[in-house]
Design brief:
This protein is of the alpha/beta class. The protein has helices at 46-54, 75-79, 97-107, 112-125, 141-153, 171-186, 198-204, 222-229, 234-248; strands at 8-17, 20-30, 35-40, 61-66, 69-70, 82-85, 159-163, 190-194, 207-212, 215-220. α3 packs across α4, α4 (112-125) runs antiparallel to α5 (141-153) and α8 crosses α9 (234-248).
């Protein structure tokens, strides 16, 4: 992580639903320009964590800061610096991709000229030219995800949160996405992505965190985790982490 205050900082962060903890005691420090991979099985708490960071959910316990802003005192300003691409993008079926991009940019008060300059670049990089002027209703899941990613990037977020960004993408689109995320990080954007595709995390992430039953079980560079858990791929590290969690836990913690 780069020096200075982290762009994403959580301490003892937790969220419960009906007395059961989806995320518990989560402490993170993710630096400016870092690409952080968030790994875990289905139901581990990854999406809940991302929704906490965006302000879509309120923590049940703990604190979080984004770009130096506290979620309790600076919630509205905090949300202006965060871009979120969920697994199922919130597109309006009867808007075109270009219109959706314009709508998102307007919500973030991006002026038209800046919006158009940014959007045209992302349309090209993500291979959207053949789809961007068609109604979103006709787009595949992968194309819908790319449209929303292009729209979010027009707002120039300081922090970009991605939930399973490669779901539905073909190999060429996946490669374009990886290159784009590396470019954004080089520009200073902090990127946090949850993914089941361990090869992507291994290839592009500066660090990864592994979540099980709502708790962070391992964190570090791939090299550090290999050293800690023994030689092998990130998949081997992930499996060993899950096995250890299963042997020591009874499941998600209850209040």
């Amino acid at each position: 992580m780069n020096g200075g205050e982290p762009m994403i900082a959580t301490t003892g962060l937790g969220r419960s639903f009906d007395g059961r903890w989806a995320v518990r005691n989560l402490s993170l420090a993710i630096g400016k320009g870092e690409l952080y991979g968030f790994l875990g099985q289905n139901g581990a708490g990854k999406t809940t964590t991302l929704r906490l960071l965006t302000g879509l959910l309120r923590p049940s316990e703990g604190t979080l800061r984004i770009a130096g802003m506290d979620h309790r005192a600076d919630g509205a300003r905090l949300r202006q610096v965060v871009g979120f691409v969920p697994d199922t993008p919130p597109l309006y079926d009867y808007l075109t991709g270009r219109q959706h991009t314009a709508l998102v940019a307007s919500l973030w008060n991006v002026d038209r000229r800046t919006r158009d300059e940014r959007a045209e670049r992302f349309f090209d990089v993500l291979g959207l030219r053949d789809a961007i002027d068609e109604p979103c209703k006709a787009a595949s899941h992968g194309t819908r995800k790319k449209i929303h990613l292009a729209a979010v990037l027009t707002t120039a977020p300081q922090v970009l949160l991605l939930d399973e960004p490669t779901t539905g993408l073909d190999p060429m689109s996946t490669r374009r996405l990886k290159d784009l995320l590396l470019e954004e990080c080089a520009r200073g954007t902090t990127v946090m992505l949850s993914t089941h595709v361990l090869e992507i995390a291994e290839q592009v992430c500066d660090r990864v965190g592994i979540l099980a039953h709502g708790r962070l079980r391992a964190q570090g560079t791939v090299a550090e985790l290999r050293q800690r858990f023994g030689d092998g791929s990130l998949e081997d590290v992930f499996v060993r982490t899950m096995e250890k969690a299963e042997s020591t836990d009874d499941g998600p913690a209850a209040r």
